[in-house]
């Protein structure tokens, strides 16, 4: 089925196709707003502590929220395929803003706080799946890893902005309810700005509903690449640490906050995304995944040496390096395994698998912190990521990635086309130019190759 967002390649050269259009940059800005809001909620553990909870309580609330998100994702993918990106994107953005308001008005660890976290994360998952599904439609198959990676760089801009704003709020306001009114009020504001940009971006989109919508379990059995599952779970473990417990680690050490970590993390990841956006076509996604996992392992190990704010820089650089490599590779492999008409399902399932890693590990990591301390938690996470990284690298060392194969074929086609243009006029065969001029059908066929 034809993708309504797909662009026509110019002269058969996919590398020349302009994928960084105005639509891309509007989506880029919208993602900055969304990640800024989400990064400010990395202070959620401080809020739970303020309300009288423990680290294990925080882990449990986070897991419950993600469990709700995981249940929602079971229907999200097919909703995207059936009803279209625009409708689901705007509905989920509204849900997310509602969750922000409920967190802002929570005054105790109870039903409202649990519901607020669930609603916020459910909305966030839909917003993110919608934006990633949309952005993939702007590029040809062999450049999707590239455009996902470049688009993801917007998240690191939002991460810097959100971390700086979060720390600024904590510095300017005393540790009371007013602080959290301001914090979650800003979360709502950036969520609203994201919604406005998404509304503008998709205002002229027309959705084509697939003729057949198989149940999600049949799509999973047929298309889901099982090798991706273990990697997504490992990514979820890393996110459980950085997005939930890092703020408590900083507070326990008596440091000023988490802006140093997330600024170094985001700058590293942003820079690498720009530099390495086409590495998947030369190095291959399997090798990049192994490198990313090992970099994450090293980063969590280095966390145990932090005693001052600037000590966060080295582990942050390792974790930012790993994130920059892992996310676009995993999403393009997971979502790309599904046919075009079920791309929403593929994207949603892949992102859900990352959440699964956080759901399974956040309460356990919180329990380790409560009973054995932060350093023991970092050692467990580092060791697990290291073992999986080495194992994945060995198991996939002889595989040739599809991105590499498609890139080679494209380069061969381009070389043949250049050679055909360089044929001498004295050649007895008619030149490609004369054939194209004299035969419009041949011209059209060349342009479609």
From TrEMBL:
Segments of this protein annotated with the region Disordered: 415-449
Compartments in which it is found: Membrane
Gene3D superfamilies from the UniProt entry: MFS general substrate transporter like domains (1.20.1250.20)
Primary residence: membrane
Pfam families on file: MFS_1, Sugar_tr
CC per GO annotation: membrane
Domain Major facilitator superfamily (MFS) profile: from-to ranges: 22-401
Gene Ontology MF terms: transmembrane transporter activity
UniProt entry keywords in alphabetical sequence: Membrane, Transmembrane, Transmembrane helix
TM region positions: 24-45, 57-76, 88-109, 115-135, 147-173, 179-202, 223-246, 258-276, 288-306, 312-337, 349-369, 375-400
InterPro entries per record: MFS, MFS_dom, MFS_Exporter, MFS_sugar_transport-like, MFS_trans_sf
Descriptive protein name: Major facilitator superfamily transporter
Native source organism of the sequence: Thalassoglobus neptunius
């Amino acid at each position: 089925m034809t993708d309504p967002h797909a662009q026509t390649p110019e002269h058969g050269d996919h590398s020349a196709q302009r994928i960084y259009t105005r639509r891309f940059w509007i989506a880029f800005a919208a993602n900055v707003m969304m990640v800024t809001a989400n990064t400010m909620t990395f202070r959620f553990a401080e809020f739970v502590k303020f309300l009288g909870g423990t680290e294990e309580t925080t882990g449990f609330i986070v897991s419950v929220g993600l469990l709700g998100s995981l249940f929602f994702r079971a229907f999200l993918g097919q909703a995207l395929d059936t009803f279209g990106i625009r409708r689901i994107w705007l509905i989920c953005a509204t849900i997310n803003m509602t969750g922000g308001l409920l967190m802002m008005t929570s005054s105790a660890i109870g039903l409202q706080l649990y519901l607020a976290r669930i609603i916020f994360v459910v909305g966030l998952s839909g917003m993110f799946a919608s934006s990633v599904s949309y952005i993939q439609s702007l590029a040809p198959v062999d450049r999707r890893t590239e455009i996902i990676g470049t688009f993801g760089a917007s998240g690191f801009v939002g991460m810097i902005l959100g971390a700086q704003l979060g720390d600024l709020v904590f510095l300017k306001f005393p540790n009371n309810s007013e602080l959290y009114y301001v914090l979650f009020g800003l979360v709502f504001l950036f969520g609203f700005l994201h919604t406005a940009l998404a509304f503008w971006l998709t205002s002229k989109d027309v959705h084509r509903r697939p003729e057949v919508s198989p149940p999600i379990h049949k799509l999973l059995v047929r298309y889901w690449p099982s090798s991706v599952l273990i990697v997504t779970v490992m990514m979820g473990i890393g996110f459980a640490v950085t997005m939930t417990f890092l703020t408590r680690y900083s507070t326990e050490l008596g440091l000023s906050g988490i802006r140093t970590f997330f600024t170094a993390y985001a700058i590293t990841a942003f820079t690498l995304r720009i530099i390495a956006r086409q590495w998947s076509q030369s190095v291959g996604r399997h090798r990049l995944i192994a490198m990313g996992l090992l970099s994450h392992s090293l980063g969590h190990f280095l966390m145990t040496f932090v005693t001052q704010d600037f000590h966060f820089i080295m582990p942050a650089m390792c974790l930012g390096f790993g994130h920059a490599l892992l996310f676009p590779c995993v999403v393009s492999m997971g979502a790309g395994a599904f046919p075009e008409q079920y791309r929403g399902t593929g994207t949603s399932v892949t992102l859900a698998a990352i959440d699964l890693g956080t759901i399974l590990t956040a309460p356990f990591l919180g329990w380790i912190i409560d009973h054995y301390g932060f350093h023991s938690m970092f050692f467990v996470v580092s060791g697990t990521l290291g073992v999986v990284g080495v194992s994945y690298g060995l198991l996939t060392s002889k595989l040739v990635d599809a991105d590499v194969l498609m890139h080679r074929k494209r380069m061969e086609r381009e070389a043949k086309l250049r050679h055909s243009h360089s044929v001498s006029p004295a050649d007895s065969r008619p030149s490609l130019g004369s054939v194209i001029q004299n035969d419009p059908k041949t011209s059209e066929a060349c342009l479609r190759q």
